[in-house]
Amino acid sequence: MQNNPIRIGTRESQLAVWQADLVKKLLEDNGHAAELVFIKSEGDIDLVTPLYAMGVQGVFTRALDAALLNNRIDIAVHSMKDVPVQLPQGIVQAAVLERASYKDILVYREQFTEDSITQINHGLLSTDNQQLSSLLIGTSSIRRKAQWLNRYPGTVIENLRGNINTRLKKVAESQWHGAIFAAAGLERINVRPENSIDLDWMLPAPAQGAIMAVARDGDYNILEAFAPINHNDTAIAVKIERDFLSALMGGCSTPISALAEVTPQGILFKGNIISPDGSQKVAVERTFSKAEADNAGTLAGHDVLEQGGREIVTAFKNAK
């Protein structure tokens, strides 16, 4: 047990604080005193530049990682989808919490018909539908943009930055038809609007809906304190998804999606890469045994590369 409170580093957004508070509670439930330390990130300061134009690798994590390495904090709490697949030298994974919803959702303003909303939910809205010719959708995620344009070409995608409440306010005050959010973020802080639907056809970012705590390598007291709150099935699933991302040489600013689900029968995996304009898509769907978990994401990634994904990766990197 720690003699001093465990210092938990967090960004200042409502969602980040909620996540850090959850970690704090779990630690306290296991007999460890803990306190929050607030750190500003680049992603919180620049709310205008699209994420994919910021060199987004680590944009929400660098400041916390620096505080951790400088011993200002003992642990950093991140939305795991924001964490680069290669952790900084000297930093290791301490725990992955049980995953919440991995889904993306559409918060909509326009008075779509009930039938149209059901069709959008399942990705079945006809491309002949008159509403598609003038759709305006907000998102700063190149992955969400690519998947939406692949399904509904011709949509105008507008940049949407800021914390959750800021983005919801922007949507409400805009002339857009709607905007895409991660379900977990809105649901965790109880701000998911009634006028929202799950996008069941949209694959999430690798590790979306999962919370990750990282510590200094060799800080064994901290690592021991976090071992009981690690959720093994979630940790297995998100490792596979991040291995898939790594195999495709991608980061959280690339149009790569992945979902691994651990079941009693094995691991169900779906993944894809889509060109930013939505015109090209290469997807994979495989079932792995639990014994294959260590290599599953890499194998699925190689499948995608061999089926045409390499050309999409190359074109994306050359266009940056």
Automatic annotation (TrEMBL):
- Catalytic activity annotation: 4 porphobilinogen + H2O = hydroxymethylbilane + 4 NH4(+)
**Pfam (any one):** Porphobil_deamC
What region holds the Porphobilinogen deaminase C-terminal domain? 236-301
| Coiled-coil regions listed in the entry | none
What InterPro entries does the entry give? HemC, Porphobilin_deaminase_cofac_BS, Porphobilin_deaminase_N, Porphobilinogen_deaminase_C, Porphobilinogen_deaminase_C_sf
Q: In which pathway does it act?
A: Porphyrin-containing compound metabolism; protoporphyrin-IX biosynthesis; coproporphyrinogen-III from 5-aminolevulinate: step 2/4
The protein's required cofactor(s) are namely: dipyrromethane
Positions of the Porphobilinogen deaminase N-terminal domain: 6-223
GO MF terms, alphabetically ordered: hydroxymethylbilane synthase activity
Report the EC code(s) recorded for this entry: 2.5.1.61
Which keywords fit this entry according to its UniProt record? Answer: Porphyrin biosynthesis, Transferase
User: What is annotated about its quaternary structure and interactions?
Assistant: Monomer.
Give the record's family classification. Belongs to the HMBS family.
Q: What's this protein's function?
A: Tetrapolymerization of the monopyrrole PBG into the hydroxymethylbilane pre-uroporphyrinogen in several discrete steps.
**Do you know which PANTHER family this protein is assigned to?**
PORPHOBILINOGEN DEAMINASE (PTHR11557)
- UniProt-recorded name of the protein: Hydroxymethylbilane synthase
Q: Which organism is it from?
A: Niabella yanshanensis
The uppermost taxa in this organism's lineage are: Bacteria, Pseudomonadati, Bacteroidota, Chitinophagia, Chitinophagales
Gene that specifies this protein: hemC
